Amino acid sequence: MTSFSPDDLSLGASPQALRALIESRRAVRRFLPEAVPDAVIRDCLELAVLAPNSCNLQPWSFQVVRDPALLARLHPVCMSQNAAKAPLIIAVLARPDTWKQACANMVEYWPEPEVPGRIRHFYAKTAPFQYNQGPLGLLGLFKRQLVRLLALRKPLMRKPNSHADMRLWAVKSTALAAENLMLAFQSHGYATCPMEGFDEVRLRKVLDIPRQAIPIMLLAVGRQGEKGVYNPRLRFPLEQHVTWL
Amino acid sequence: MTSFSPDDLSLGASPQALRALIESRRAVRRFLPEAVPDAVIRDCLELAVLAPNSCNLQPWSFQVVRDPALLARLHPVCMSQNAAKAPLIIAVLARPDTWKQACANMVEYWPEPEVPGRIRHFYAKTAPFQYNQGPLGLLGLFKRQLVRLLALRKPLMRKPNSHADMRLWAVKSTALAAENLMLAFQSHGYATCPMEGFDEVRLRKVLDIPRQAIPIMLLAVGRQGEKGVYNPRLRFPLEQHVTWL
């Protein structure tokens, strides 16, 4: 749904327009029943996956729940919070388990007639060495020791070298995409609520989530309802978070 | 640096303008030497921390490196990659360790004259119970078992109940903020490169990073240089990542 001409690309959002968009996004907890059109959902997902991500392995997936019966089953899973009565819930999943397929995809979908040699090599050799942790994470354990030794001589990337590292790695890229997703809905006039309050065990059953996938949030989406925002905005002073060097 | 009137808030970025902004963001690996003004950096950090985050505990911090001598020391830490020659590098840190102070801050900085009772209770009782994992994570271990039992009867939030959960939790919110940060720089006409390729042990020494903080990326920032983008954009078909339910 690219509805602007290439000329518009130079426009983009101004700092003022982006600030207004970001400031207008709040966690909204009451929605109107009005459905979100599929074309809008698709447009927002397209913007989500344009987020930067580790080695372009795109370690994310999304379950778009619009079916009223399924939404009704999700409501108690979210401990019956109001936000979970939204007409649309998107389960945002981090995928530490899809890097191997993604390496193959990178070559298959390469957007130029010839895949450059350095790209072939990276996705055939470098990335698999970097991301494969082996059964029980034993290869990762070995790599951790190897890197520790080699890094005595020169700087080296030391992670991800465990399954825990892989989870952090995938959650990071997926959260970058999730922020794009929320801003995209906001730009279309739809409010969102990123929910972390859910029963993960029940969620996995209801949505049949793959064992290795990590649900990082359930994103409630819809038109903002009355008294949709519960609290005033509060951010601690920037000075607490920022060191200037 | 709020440079627009409240009336502009209704404007925000249109879906087209946001798409153009997001599409124009690429990982740029060659920068011009031109410095990034502090006012721009501050504006972008302000937008970063408006990201949604877990229980508003704002588990992030940023080290803004502009000093040429320090930048020169960071270059080898980033395995001497071109992107690390940028005039500005921001170390984006996830903070699983600051929730206790943040609970106190929520009451101290509450933006209304009276702090509502439910807010006081949440940050004095609920949040500490939820996030405190105790020494060696033993309290988390106990909570995991308790939740498992109680959840036999009704849906319950089961995480974060380990130090590993806390790390995922903090990385998630921090990455949401990092995406805002990159889009903000983009809106100001500055390019970025989120670098994960760095030697974490050396980085911690050079920037004196607190032990529990997790550097999720080093963000290189500057004006885009010639041949700054290395590869064509490639995203796998949306159908691979999305399930419609």
From TrEMBL, chains A, B:
The segment(s) forming the Nitroreductase domain are 22-223
Q: Which GO molecular-function terms appear in the entry?
A: oxidoreductase activity
* Keyword terms: Oxidoreductase
InterPro entries, from UniProt? Nitroreductase, Nitroreductase-like
Q: Which Pfam families match?
A: Nitroreductase
SUPFAM superfamilies, from UniProt? Answer: FMN-dependent nitroreductase-like
| Similarity comment | Belongs to the nitroreductase family.
Q: What is this protein called?
A: Nitroreductase
- Biological source species: Aquipseudomonas alcaligenes (strain ATCC 14909 / DSM 50342 / CCUG 1425 / JCM 20561 / NBRC 14159 / NCIMB 9945 / NCTC 10367 / 1577) (Pseudomonas alcaligenes)
